[in-house]
Amino acid sequence: MSLPTALRERGLRVTEPRLRVYEVVGTHPHADADTVLTEVRRTLPTISVQAVYDVLHALTDAGLLRRIEPAGHPARYERRVGDNHHHVACRSCGALGDVDCAVGHAPCLVPSSTSGFTIETAEVTYWGLCPDCRAAETT
């Protein structure tokens, strides 16, 4: 399905900022808002910081983007939605990567108690060192 169709189906207008933000997140998976802003400004130089945040919020609320919030790092955005994958994060440089769910269905983890909640998904972040940071530590 095309992005304009997906936007309309979710009750959103098709705008140039929405199209550009979505495109940038596709070419820069796990980008933070500053990276999105910098890249969008290459084609829309007058777009404001607030407009980028508003678009990221609207696309996330519409289920077209996923917001990832690794502890101690700025929120990141990705277009991989609709599955229950997790992330691996470098504790040194903050690089992120995708990790498929170990079990393959949502939720991947079965809690010992739900405290009355209906569990819909589980988020796991694996922390470690990326190959570049690991190599830098050994030199």
TrEMBL record:
Record's subcellular location: Cytoplasm
Main localization (coarse): cytoplasm
Alphabetized CDD domains for the sequence: Fur_like
Key words, A-Z: Cytoplasm, DNA-binding, Iron, Metal-binding, Repressor, Transcription, Transcription regulation, Zinc
Keyword match Iron: yes
Signal peptide (from-to): none
Stored Gene3D superfamilies: 3.30.1490.190, Winged helix-like DNA-binding domain superfamily/Winged helix DNA-binding domain
Pfam families: FUR
Entries under SUPFAM superfamilies matching the protein: Winged helix' DNA-binding domain (SSF46785)
Record bears the keyword Metal-binding: yes
PANTHER family reported in the protein's UniProt record: TRANSCRIPTIONAL REGULATOR FURA, ZINC UPTAKE REGULATION PROTEIN
Similarity section: Belongs to the Fur family.
Designated name of the protein: Transcriptional repressor
Species the sequence originates in: Cellulomonas fengjieae
Lineage: Bacteria, Bacillati, Actinomycetota, Actinomycetes, Micrococcales
